[in-house]
Specification:
Blueprint: H1 6-25, H2 40-44, H3 56-67, H4 89-101, H5 112-128, E1 136-140, H6 143-156, H7 162-165, E2 176-181, H8 186-194, E3 202-205, H9 215-227, E4 231-238, H10 250-260, E5 263-267, E6 292-295, H11 297-300, E7 308-312, H12 315-322, H13 353-388, E8 392-394, E9 402-407, H14 414-430, E10 437-441, E11 444-450, H15 458-473
Parallel strand pairs: 2-3, 2-4, 4-5, 5-6
Antiparallel strand pairs: 1-7, 6-7, 8-9, 9-11, 10-11
Helix pairs in contact: 4-13, 5-13, 6-8, 6-12, 9-10, 13-15
The protein binds pyridoxal-5'-phosphate (PLP).
Pyridoxal-5'-phosphate (PLP) binds at residues 83, 142-144, 185, 187, 238, 240, 242, 267, 269-270, 296, 308.
């Protein structure tokens, strides 16, 4: 009735490590984007569970036979879609240890080292991105969760008794309004709808020709809402938007947040890690005036899914929004320690900070910064190649490592250009060599190429450029 015996665990463990090592080493033999159709993998998995146990060897064989065709390989250097999220060696090893320790950090007492390593890693990370000492940090799973907690704290700060009385069935509550740019990530909308703000309570502020929020437009909207009797309560500024990686003018937005006493949250899920690089410090202008901020190491800091870092200057308000006491969770240390369950919706939590500990120590801050800087340089180089071609157009500035462009042979109207680029992207992805994604900017279909994998080298970017050009040359309808 016991667990897997020690010798069997070791045999399987070494086998799995060998498998992983070979997989990562030979990853380029796979197409980055899975080519299966819906239901293909489902059909291969038995509909009923096995009555008797099997060897792990069989299971691992089925990882190959059943699953691998249906894996989109985020660790593949040809993966240049969305934003990269890649697993480094130290990150993978830390995940293994997380599972082995199986620690649940709901309370300080349920693993003191868990809470204290997380606290230490938040202190390290805070310094790495240049936030002042009064920022308190915590790890959540994703930026979506982090931003939802920011909005919850912003709502709690209003002192409207929502914690006790809720929002429904009350006629003493004003309509709460949240502001973000029309390029903000839809996780902000999800946070707002989860918290009863409603999609109607979100104002999407317009952007300039560089896709950055226009502060005067923001202030006008706030004034208008106040004059309607509504209650503005939160602004979300994005540093590195998802479509184009544009940077909202945080400092000017912070002026407005202060003037109207609104919570300012910064969503820098993708780009925030670049604050480690001296040349990129400009992105942090105004960060010290934000109430909260989110950065995802699971995007561009080589951390396996998932790990999102959330900072706030007002942990007490966050705690007020979420803490409850239950008799069975009371401990003798409650007055001296942070019990992480008090700062969010979840009770149980995984030991994610181990990943930061392994990754930051293995690469060092300089090692991480150099890798990220190299990606930025590669992106600038790629953008340069695009600019040199008459038949291509850059569609947005490239402040980080994401290039927005389209093919434009010069003899087509906007409608046809959209169709042409959509077709081109489809063909590029069908090549099975690279995987790019797209966005629409002012109605124009735009191809996005993003660099940021731990495995990205110059040759991969050259190869991608070659594939894009040969796809055009070999295709009758391009
Ligand atoms: C990726 C991204 C998100 C969502 O991140 P998750 O961790 O997947 O929830 C939110 N905002 C921005 C700006 C992003 O780039």
């Amino acid at each position: 009735m016991n667990d897997m015996p020690k010798d069997e665990f070791e045999k399987n463990g070494y086998m799995l490590v060998d498998w992983i090592s070979k997989y990562l080493n030979e990853i380029e033999k796979y197409p980055p984007l899975s080519q299966v159709n819906p239901g293909d993998i489902l059909k291969r998995i038995p509909q009923t569970p096995p009555t008797n146990g099997e060897d792990i060897e069989n299971v691992l064989a089925d990882v190959e036979n059943i699953l691998m065709d249906g894996i989109t390989h985020w660790n593949h250097p040809g993966f240049m879609a969305y934003f990269n999220s890649t697993s480094s060696g130290p990150g993978i090893l830390a995940e293994l240890l997380t599972a082995a320790l199986g620690a649940n950090g709901m309370l300080w007492k349920t693993s003191p080292a868990f809470t204290e390593l997380e606290k230490s890693m938040m202190n390290w990370f805070r310094q790495m991105v240049g936030l002042p000492e009064n920022y308190w940090g915590i790890i959540y799973d994703t930026a979506s969760t982090s931003s939802m907690h920011a909005i919850a704290a912003a709502r709690e700060q209003l002192d409207l008794g929502i914690r006790e009385k809720g929002m429904t069935g009350r006629n003493d509550l004003p309509k709460l309004i949240l502001y973000c740019s029309e390029h903000a990530h839809n996780s902000i909308d999800k946070g707002a709808l989860t918290l009863g703000i409603g999609l109607d309570g979100i104002r999407k502020i317009s952007v300039n020709d560089k896709f950055e929020m226009i502060p005067t437009d923001l202030e006008n909207k706030i004034k208008e809402d106040i004059s309607q009797g509504y209650k503005p309560f939160c602004i979300v500024a994005t540093v590195g938007t998802t479509s184009t990686t544009s940077v909202d003018p945080v400092d000017a937005i912070a002026d407005i947040a202060e003037k109207y006493n609104l919570w300012l949250h910064i969503d820098s899920a993708y780009a925030g890690v670049t604050a480690m690089i001296p040349e990129m410090k400009w992105i942090t202008k105004g960060w010290d005036r934000a109430d909260s901020l989110v950065i995802n190491p699971h995007k561009w800091m080589f951390t396996p899914m998932d790990l999102s870092v959330f900072f706030t200057r007002k942990p007490d308000i966050l705690k007020r929004a979420f803490s409850l006491s239950a008799e069975y969770l009371k401990t003798n240390q409650d007055s001296e320690v942070d019990n992480l369950m008090d700062y969010g919706i979840q009770l149980g939590r995984r030991f994610r900070s181990l990943k930061l500990w392994f990754i930051i120590r293995y690469f060092g801050v300089d090692g991480l910064a150099e890798r990220i800087k190299n990606h930025i340089n590669l992106a600038k180089e790629f953008a340069g190649w695009i600019e040199q071609e008459n038949d291509f157009e850059i569609m947005a500035p490239t402040p980080f490592s994401t290039v927005c462009f389209r093919y434009n042979p010069g003899n087509k109207n906007e409608d046809d250009l959209n169709k042409l680029n959509e077709k081109l992207l489809e063909k590029i992805n069908e090549s099975g060599k690279i995987f790019l994604s797209h966005t629409k900017l002012n109605g124009k279909f735009t191809i996005r190429l993003t660099i940021g994998s731990i495995r990205h080298e110059r040759r991969h970017i050259e190869e991608a450029w070659k594939i894009i050009k040969t796809t055009i040359n070999s295709s009758s309808d391009c």
